[in-house]
Amino acid sequence: MSGHSNYIPKTGFERWLDARLPIARLAYDSLVDFPTPKNLNYWYTFGGILALCLGIQLVTGIVLAMHYVPHVDHAFASIERIMRDVNYGWLIRYMHSNGASMFFIAVYAHMFRGLYYGSYKAPRELLWILGCVIYLLMMATAFMGYVLPWGQMSFHGAVVITNLFGALPLIGQSITTWLWGGFAVDNATLNRFFSLHYLMPFMIAGVVILHVWALHVTGNNNPTGVHVQSKADTVPFHPYYTVKDGFAIALFMLMFAAFVFFSPNALGHPDNYIPANPLVTPAHIVPEWYFLPFYAILRAVPDKLMGVLLMFGAIAVLFILPWLDTSRVRSLRYRPTTRMYFFIFVVACLVLGFCGGRLPDDYVIPGLKSFQLLDADLNSMVWLSRFATAYYFAYFLIILPVMGLTENPLSQPKSISEPVLSHSAALPVGAAASPEKRG
Amino acid sequence: MLRKCLAIAALGLALAGGPALAAGSQKEPRTVEWSFNGPFGKFDRAQLQRGFKVYREVCAACHSMDLMSFRNLGQKGGPFYDPKYPNPNDNPDVKTIAKDFETSEIDQETGDIVKRPATPADRFPNPYPNEAAARAGNGGALPPDFSTLSKARMGGADYIYSLLSGYSTPPAGLEVPSGQYYNPYMLGDVSAFWKGKGHAPPGGFIAMPPQLAADKVTFDDDTKSTIDQQARDVAAFLTWASEPKMEERKAFGVGAMIYLLILAGLLYMSYKRIWRNVAH
Asked: Rounded to an integer, what distance in angstroms lies between the CA atom of residue A48 and that of residue A64?
């Protein structure tokens, strides 16, 4: 998409096409010839996996929409009809519902990889921000998709999430009514959620094109964080990364298939197999697992408006991350102190997810009642999520800016090839032993 | 490796979130070695037939199964499936069962609602004309629909089995409200009704009195009709009704896993071969 193109049209048709619409050139430059750093590890395969996830969700979703009825009286039964009477409907529907979870597993891996190797730093700020836009769209799409079966969790989840906007002063109530299309979550809400749930994946696909475009302008980052300097640092995307991504995709699909075929409801909530009833509220309303960290942040704050702002702030902070990290070194491989803080950050995210699935008053350590400070019980999920929330924001707003200025980074290799050539195993030409274990 | 660790961590997160939500005081359901457990599990046809009989003779008096049609009983994987009748509507067992039920339709001549014997294409008739009638007939409680019950309860078949066979006399000190019954497996909290010493007993109150009794249902295959057996069989039947395509799904899954394993192996070998001359 940028720079020099090595595409040579071979047949008459290709020459004819190339002079009019160089689409074959575009495909060749971006998927075949694209020079890619040769030291990318398996963490870099999630981009390809995510593209596949989006494809699976689009194809299964379009088929599901042929059978689904977006009406409060028929939605639940129409999904069960897909499961029972549509040929391979169970397969399509379980792929779609588990596919959402797989999509988020992959996107979280992709994001943590970007955080670790500094893939958000110049010149890749826009690439990172476009990724954040995709993530935001994914969250909106997943939330609206979860509402469509019109089970108990669908309905009450929709009530809770849409009511969050009601916390905004002055305009809150109007926004909520506007979102609902009425004065409660009802048929109008379900209809518009279905419409938007069908629209948004195509918006995601559009931003994915921008994301890949931006990637192909700057080129891939790599585990060393050092710029590509010569042709010796890169290999063509095809066949080197098509085969490596392909292998990773096959492994990912094994995990995906294990869920779809043998445990299709493990990631969902049983209450969503009870048809929605506005008059009966489930004992505990919880979102899907991929929203639990944000749910924990929301509940960590006693004030509703502040909780909502903090929850959205947790995502907003990602957008300004390229300017919060002041270090000139990209990869945390050469920033040992920050790397330690990064791993604590990962743990904090997991802790938030854990807290989000529990009741705020649950004990962290059961039976221990002596952690009272004034009127606060520090041995409770709500306090654990408060500590984790504080760390989440401190990592972005304090640790990264300060560490970049004070930390003494290790010396970086001069080029991508340098650390490779210093490997003893790389000296003899030929099949190297277990190259996947190295960066 | 790293990939795997992350996936495991992510799933750990998911699983930690899931079951944690059943944070009630009820007893954990007893686990049963179901024939349909595991990736190669299949339903026990005889058990499904017995379970259907329990449903029909005991549960169906109050509990609807709106999403089930009689033909489902004779479809592939169903309790009365017969390979001689690939179209379940032709299955004589299913026809006989359907004929014993009455369903209503509109007489095209007069417009009146008339009763007629059901056919395999008909849905299981609902025992009540509407929700209000169902509540009125059950002391204000609504008997849940059974179509997706096993998927809609934490613990699935284990829970249904444990609840049905787990009624016990309330411990001394527990004041059971009238019209309610104590069950240690029921989701809920009885501490407000506990006047005894120490912790309140596990479980909750349920509006359904114990329904199963020894020999209440006579099994056609000479299986001893105990409460435990009836509870087991009806739980298996309800699991089949919630997931009628489970056998097909698991069989398909085994093939898919083998395919993906071979594909992953081939791709790994290609990967090693393509990269063999690149120091990286």
From this structure: 24
